[in-house]
Amino acid sequence: MKKYALILLVLISGITFGQEVPKVLKTGFSKEALAQTITMQDGKKTTMSKILAKHKGKIVLVDLWASWCGDCVKAMPEAEKLKEKNPDIDFIYLSLDRKEDSWKNGIVKHKISGSENYWFADGWKNEFNNYIDLNWIPRYMVINQKGKIAKYYAIVPQDPEIQKTIDNLTKM
């Protein structure tokens, strides 16, 4: 019953907030998406390709968020529970904050400093976000051990498909 209530909640929130599930659920990244530059906490630039390469051989949960996003902030306790339940999974936070200071202050304020945090200085409209059909945040993706997309689209960390995907990848 709880599972059906969650699914109903996800459907209602999608309708209420205008979020639309992409028509094609992608399993890999384009060359352009991987070449997207992103800022590290120390101010240096890197690419999505280098970030994913760093985690090759590991399961990764990508959390797209922003400190100004009420839905993102509300989801953080559930994301933390997911992290605690899956200590061997790497968590990467990609911020869509408008300003670098807002992003860095959000990391501290929301206590997500124990994970990898990056910021899209180019803003919402960039090659990576365009490729993944980003139309709302928060957004969660699971990346498999080979750097391919295993779960393309989730809008809440408690989406049962996230854990199911992680469990299936762990068995491999």
Polypeptide structure, described:
By secondary structure, the protein is an alpha/beta fold. It has a single domain, classed as Glutaredoxin (3-Layer(aba) Sandwich). Helix content is 41%, strand content 20%. The protein has seven helices and seven strands. The protein has helices at 2-17, 31-35, 48-54, 70-85, 100-109, 127-131, 160-171, and strands at residues 37-40, 45-47, 60-65, 90-95, 116-119, 139-143, 149-154. The protein has a seven-stranded mixed β-sheet. It is globular and about 40 Å long. Residues 5-17 have low confidence and may be disordered. Keywords: Cytochrome c-type biogenesis, Disulfide bond, Isomerase, Redox-active center. One of its GO terms (molecular function) is isomerase activity. One of its GO terms (biological process) is cytochrome complex assembly.
What would you say about this model in short?
With 172 residues, the protein is an alpha/beta fold.
